[in-house]
Write a structure and sequence with these properties.
Order of helices and strands of chain B: HEEEEHHEEH
Number of helices of chain A: 1
Strand order of the largest sheet of chain B: 1-2-3-4
Oligomer: heterodimer
Shape of chain A: elongated
Number of helices of chain B: 4
Number of domains of chain B: 2
Structural class of chain A: alpha+beta
Helix content of chain A: 10-25%
Strand content of chain A: over 45%
Number of strands of chain A: 13
Radius of gyration of chain A: 20 Å
CATH class of chain A: Mainly Beta
CATH topology of chain A: Immunoglobulin-like
Distance between the termini of chain B: 66 Å
Helix content of chain B: 25-40%
Largest sheet of chain B: 4 strands, mixed
Strand content of chain B: 15-25%
Order of helices and strands of chain A: HEEEEEEEEEEEEE
């Protein structure tokens, strides 16, 4: 009787694990870097972050740049480029550099979707400094890897 | 009062099932967490400038993941092109030209159409073209990543108008 119960328990335990992991994959998974704080430029302090996202059909990289207090900055002051790398460090996909087309507190840019592999995301952001009239680039931290 | 054998069996299986679900969820979370713990080592802003190898033409080459900043990126970035061919893309082809003013940035951006295919050459380590690297123009989304929905992603990729 005990042996029979143990067998049933083991099967139920495995079914539980499979259910939990498959649910996570179906809902999608993402891995984000820590925020990197920088500035101030033009009186604004910024933060940026790289994210790699996957669900059952899609994997892509995000880069986000934002005003640290989330209030709006002028048009064209923030730019971001997203990049997706595989586990060997090869560039797999990238986006063009995009700038905030409206006054906003945050800008997100994503890449095209890619195929099955293990990926990292690392983005580049650009912010405008009106005191010297230049854009300054800041890399994001690298995201944790994600398997797709 | 005694518990019937069927009750014990049901209880045991129930506990095991719930334990499995919890273990599965925690297992997945810990994978992300352990990966997350390593990321501070990958900070492009604090790690020392990577010394890249140079090709026959004196150009640096390697993975852009090793660069400490955009300025430290190699001239030739390791990339996987069409048909899975491994090679290099030029940094200048990937990054384009930095605008000088916000007005110029927006003017440059307005010339781009989301979803348009972009193709740049893929080189071997000594600048011989061996293939191509394709991607598509995406538009920025003026909101935080956490607020983005499916429609935003379609708009950014120019997919809204084609469906």
């Amino acid at each position: 009787m005990i042996k029979k119960n143990l067998k049933g328990a083991v099967i139920a335990f495995i079914v539980g694990i499979l259910f939990a992991t498959s649910t996570v994959v179906a809902l999608g998974a993402e891995a984000s870097s820590n925020w990197f704080n920088f500035g101030p430029y033009s009186g604004y302090s910024y933060q940026n972050q790289a994210t790699v996202y996957s669900d059952t059909t899609d994997v892509f990289a995000y880069t986000e740049v934002a005003n640290q207090n989330w209030t709006d900055v002028p048009v064209g002051y923030m730019g971001a480029e997203a990049r997706l790398f595989n586990s060997s460090g090869y560039l797999v996909n990238y986006s063009n550099m995009s700038y905030n087309g409206t006054e906003t507190g945050a800008l997100s840019v994503l890449t095209d979707s890619s195929t099955h592999d293990t990926y990292y995301s690392l983005g580049i952001t650009a912010v405008y400094n009106n005191s010297d009239g230049y854009y300054y680039n800041e890399d994001t931290y690298m995201s944790p890897r994600i398997n797709f | 009062m005694s518990i019937k054998p069927l009750g014990i069996k049901t209880l045991t299986i129930g506990v095991a099932l719930v334990s499995g679900i919890v273990a599965g969820s925690m297992g997945f979370g810990s994978v992300l967490a352990s990966a997350s713990n390593n990321q501070s080592l990958s900070n492009g802003n604090v790690k020392p400038a990577h010394i890249y190898l140079k090709n026959n033409n004196g150009e640096t080459y390697g993975s852009a993941l090793d660069a400490s900043s955009l300025d430290n990126e190699p001239n030739l970035i390791a990339a996987i092109g069409e048909d899975g061919i491994k090679g290099y893309v030029r940094s200048v082809d990937v990054n384009g030209v930095m605008p000088k003013t916000p007005e110029e940035a927006i003017a440059q951006q307005n010339k781009l159409t989301a979803g348009t295919a972009v193709e740049i050459p893929l080189y071997d380590v000594n600048d011989k073209i061996i293939g191509s690297f394709k991607t598509h123009i995406t538009k920025g989304i003026n909101k935080p990543t956490t607020s983005i929905n499916e429609q935003d992603i379609k708009d950014a990729r120019g997919e809204s108008t084609s469906k």
